[in-house]
Automatic annotation (TrEMBL):
Record's protein name: Cytochrome c oxidase accessory protein CcoG
Transmembrane segments: 41-58, 85-106, 159-179, 191-212, 332-351
Lineage: superkingdom: Bacteria
Keyword Transit peptide: no
Keywords of this entry: 4Fe-4S, Electron transport, Iron, Iron-sulfur, Membrane, Metal-binding, Transmembrane, Transmembrane helix, Transport
Gene encoding the protein: ccoG
Length: 471
C-alpha cells in the first residue's frame, strides 16, 4: 500500500473559496411600469397596515393585542382564550389553503406583491436609492474609495434603515404588549430585559433580512419557494419569456443584418431589474418570485423598438404552447370549495360562540357527606370565566331531580371583563323528605341584564353527578 501518495485535487472554480463561492451582490436597476406601480401600492399597504394596526383602539382598548402573560388575544371586539385554540387552528388551515389556491391559480404572486420580505426589502431599496442613487451610481459608489461623500451617503442609508427596522421591531413587540405604553417606556428607558431583547432581535432581523440578505431569504431560507413548484400546473399563471417570438436574439452582427431575428435585442435589462438576479430567458426557475419587474422592463424596450409588448409576460405553459388555458380546473375548484366550507364553518362558530366558560369539578376527596342534621351533601367547584370584553352579571341555577337543592352558593354574581372566578358550591338532599338516589345534575350559568331579563345567548351549562349512599 502506498501510504505516502495522495490523489491530486484541483479546484474546478479557482475563483471560489473552498466549497463556497463569494456571493455577488445584486444591484437592481429601478424600473417603472404598470406592475411595479401595483407592487409599490401593495407593499405600501402591507407595511403601513403593519405599523398602524396595533395603534387602533376598540371599545377603549388596543384593537389587536396578543396578551401572552394573561393568555388572551384581543382581536377587535372578540377575545380569544386558550380554550379557543380551535379558532386559531382553523384560521391557520384556511390561510394555508388560501395560499395553495392562489399559488395554483397565479403562481408566486404572493411572493412578488405581499410577502413581508418583499415589502420590507422594497422599502429598504427605496431608501438605498434615495441616498446612493440608481444602479449605475451604486456600483460606482461600491468601487469608490472611502471618502467623506461615500461615508455620508452610507451613514444616511444605514441610519434610515435602522430607524425603519426599529419601528418594525417596536411595532412587532407592540402586538404583544400595549403599544401606547411600550413606545414611551422604550424612549424613557423603562422597558424590561425581555422586552428590550425582542425589540432588538426584530430590529436586527429586519435590518439584516431587508438590508443585506434580501433575495437570499427567498432563495435559501423560505420553504414556500421549495414546495410551490409541486403546486404549479400547465394552467398556472407564470412570468415567462416567449422564446418562439424572442429567438434568435438580435445581438452583434445580427442587429444590423438581414438575417431573420427574434424580438429580443439582448439588452439584458430584464436581468438587471430582477431582484433575484436570474435570466428569465433561461426558462421558469424556482428563484422567480413573479414580481414582473422584467415584464415592465421588456415592455419598455419593445415600445422603444416599435414591437408589440409582451415578449416577457404573465402567461401559462398551455398558452405558450398555443393551447387553451383552463382557468377553472378540478384542483382549483376543490381548493375553492374546501376554503368556502371552512370559512362558512369558521364564521358560523364565531357568531354562535358564547363568551362564557363554565367547568365543574367534583370534590375528589369525598363522594358525599352526611351532615349532623342528616342531609346528604356533595361538594363541587365551579370554574367560571367571563370571556367577553364587558362585565356581566350571572345567575346560577341547578337542574336536578326533585329534592336536590343548591346550598352555600351565590345565586347572582358579577364578573368583570376577562375575570375568572372559582365558586365552591354544595348540592344537598334531605332523606327525610323523600328517597335520595345518585343522579345526573346540571349547573347552568346565565347572563342576566337588569332585574331578571335573561340574555339567552350568554348561557352555559355543565353536567356533573350527585352521589348518594346506596341505601
Ligand atoms: S428586456 Fe426584453 S429585449 Fe431586453 S434582453 Fe430581456 S427579453 Fe430581451
Ligand atoms: S424573473 Fe422577472 S418576475 Fe421573476 S423574479 Fe426576476 S424580475 Fe421578477
Amino acid at each position: 500500500m502506498n501510504a505516502g501518495r495522495r490523489i491530486p485535487v484541483e479546484q474546478s472554480h479557482p475563483e471560489a473559496n473552498g466549497l463556497y463561492a463569494k456571493r455577488q451582490r445584486i444591484q437592481i436597476k429601478d424600473v417603472k411600469g404598470h406592475y411595479q406601480r401595483l407592487r409599490d401600492a401593495s407593499v405600501r399597504v402591507v407595511v403601513v397596515l403593519y405599523l398602524v394596526l396595533p395603534w387602533l383602539t376598540w371599545n377603549g382598548r388596543q384593537a389587536i393585542l396578543f396578551n401572552l402573560p394573561d393568555r388572551r388575544f384581543n382581536i377587535f371586539g372578540i377575545t380569544f382564550w386558550p380554550q379557543d385554540f380551535l379558532f386559531l387552528a382553523w384560521a391557520l388551515i384556511i390561510s394555508a389553503l388560501a395560499l395553495f389556491f392562489v399559488t395554483v391559480f397565479a403562481g408566486r404572486v404572493y411572493c412578488g406583491y405581499v410577502c413581508p420580505q418583499t415589502a420590507w426589502t422594497r422599502w429598504f431599496m427605496a431608501i438605498e436609492q434615495f441616498f446612493e442613487g440608481d444602479r449605475h451610481q451604486r456600483i460606482k459608489l461600491d468601487k469608490a474609495p472611502l471618502r467623506l461623500g461615500k461615508v455620508a451617503r452610507r451613514t444616511g442609508k444605514h441610519v434610515s434603515w435602522l430607524v425603519l427596522a426599529l419601528a418594525t421591531g417596536l411595532t412587532f413587540v407592540g402586538y404583544f404588549s400595549p403599544i401606547r405604553e411600550l413606545v414611551p417606556d422604550f424612549f424613557t428607558g423603562q422597558v424590561g430585559g425581555w422586552g428590550l431583547f425582542w425589540i432588538g432581535f426584530f430590529t436586527f432581523a429586519t435590518y439584516g433580512n431587508a438590508g443585506f440578505m434580501r433575495e437570499q431569504v427567498c432563495l435559501y431560507m423560505c420553504p414556500y419557494a421549495r414546495f410551490q413548484s409541486v403546486m404549479f400546473d400547465r394552467d398556472t399563471l407564470i412570468v415567462s419569456y416567449d422564446q418562439a417570438r424572442g429567438e434568435p436574439r438580435r445581438r452583434g452582427a445580427r442587429k444590423h443584418s438581414e438575417e431573420p431575428a427574434g424580438d429580443c435585442v439582448d439588452c439584458a435589462l430584464c436581468v438587471q431589474v430582477c431582484p433575484t438576479g436570474i435570466d428569465i430567458r433561461d426558462g421558469l426557475q424556482y428563484e422567480c418570485v413573479t414580481c414582473a419587474a422584467c415584464v415592465d422592463a421588456c415592455d419598455q424596450v419593445m415600445e422603444r423598438i416599435g414591437r408589440p409588448k409582451g415578449l416577457i409576460r404573465y402567461t401559462t405553459e398551455n398558452a405558450l404552447d398555443g393551447r387553451q388555458t383552463h382557468l377553472l380546473r378540478p384542483r382549483l375548484l376543490a381548493y375553492g370549495a374546501v376554503i368556502l366550507v371552512l370559512i362558512g364553518l369558521f364564521a358560523g362558530s364565531l357568531v354562535t360562540r358564547v363568551p362564557l366558560q363554565v367547568d365543574v369539578l367534583r370534590d375528589r376527596n369525598q363522594l358525599y357527606r352526611v351532615t349532623g342534621s342528616g342531609t346528604i351533601e356533595n361538594s363541587y367547584r365551579l370554574e367560571i370565566l367571563n370571556k367577553d370584553q364587558s362585565p356581566h352579571s350571572y345567575q346560577l341555577s341547578l337542574e336536578a331531580p326533585a329534592g336536590l337543592t343548591l346550598v352555600n352558593a351565590p345565586r347572582r354574581f358579577t364578573l368583570s371583563a376577562g375575570e375568572h372566578r372559582s365558586l365552591p358550591v354544595t348540592v344537598s338532599a334531605d332523606p327525610y323528605a323523600g328517597a335520595v338516589e345518585s343522579a345526573d345534575i346540571r349547573f347552568r350559568v346565565r347572563a342576566v341584564q337588569g332585574a331578571d331579563a335573561e340574555a339567552p345567548d350568554m348561557e352555559m351549562a355543565h353536567e356533573s353527578r350527585f352521589i348518594a349512599p346506596r341505601s
